Amino acid sequence: MAARPTIRLTIPGTLEYRAVAVRVVAEACRMVSAPGVERTADGNAYDLRHPFDAEFVSAFAEIFNNIAIHAYQRRAAVDGGEVDIAIAVGAGELDVEIRDHGKPFDIDAVSTPDLDSLPEGGMGIHIARALLDEVIYEPGPPNLWRLHKQLSPPPPPPPPPPRAPPRSPFSRETCRSSFSEPIRVTSRRSASPAPSTS
Q: What are the φ and ψ backbone dihedral angles of 17, each rounded to 5 degrees?
């Protein structure tokens, strides 16, 4: 990770501790999506109103589930497996590195799920890839996940409505009001035709 302030957390790699990790990641997301704005959550829930926060937290939770269920095979509590998390908050971006000492796997062998059949499992990596800008996995030990997401810029404001063209100072209304009487144009005609010189 780049030289940015880093939040570090080490917790047991079990589903019971997932909420702790998710809460920390949710707060880091808030630091990207609403820097300097303090938001309070209702009760025990975290604030995921901003799409950036909701997407990153959902992807992170899926990866944490995969570590607890597949890498540690639900034995982290017995075997003492831990998850090390490093979170780097940047201006408009968030990077999270997750390390575990569980069973590695080949991420390239994970197929895209058939969404028409609505499978009950096997969606975690697909969801993370769909929600984040970058998902990198390096098998270990330790296994290393790198998650990255850039905050999308807000949409540009709509263009202003077209303005009426400026009124000419020589418009018909202006000319009429400038003169109290109509202007008469006369031409000089000679009374008799000019003599011919032949």
A: -100, 0
CB burial string 86-95: b at 16+ within 10 A, e below: bbbbbeebbb
Alpha-carbon torsion (70, 75, 79, 82), positive or negative: positive
User: Cα angle vertex 55, ends 23, 94, to 5°?
Assistant: 70
Q: How far, in Å, CA of 21 to CA of 139, rounded?
A: 21
Tokens of 185: 């144009």
**CA 38/CA 30 separation, integer angstroms:** 9
Task: Write down the residue that tokens 């589903």 correspond to.
Answer: 15
DSSP-based helix, strand, coil % in the chain, nearest 5: 35, 20, 50
% pLDDT > 70, the chain: 74
Q: What is the dihedral of CA 31, 33, 38, 41, to 10 degrees?
A: -100
The Cα–Cα gap between 135 and 108 comes to 12
Q: What angle do CA 120, 143, 76 make, to 5 degrees?
A: 65
pTM for the structure as a whole: 0.71
- 1 — pLDDT class (breaks 50, 70, 90): very low
